[in-house]
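step: validate -> pass
step: tokenize input -> pass
step: predict -> running
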Amino acid sequence: MATARAMLERRRSSRVRIRIPVKVHSNETGSEPHDASAEAISVSRTGALLRLPFLPELGSRIEVLHCLSHEVREFRVISLRSKKEHGHFELGVEILHPARNFWGVSFPDERR
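step: predict -> pass
step: emit ->
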């Protein structure tokens, strides 16, 4: 099992714990489309940990609307966690086409 230090060294960018309201759209093949209010609870330049009321498949693509900036980006689901408080799921996602800072936050390892 990897140590916490090794996992941090492998990360592409630092993470910031935050609560950002988002809307998630999933249109998986063979299932009903889902649209739901959700929140990003931890973000990085390349991804996020989202809390939402449905569970997309691992590897599927979802669209995330940042409710404050109204910007939309496509993400891939890279990890799944079982139901947490209030019946919500947590999933790790990576941004497919990174551009500028989608989340609009300052990251600790950014140069100023």
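step: describe -> The beta strands are 16-26, 34-43, 47-52, 61-66, 72-81, 89-95.
step: cleanup -> pass
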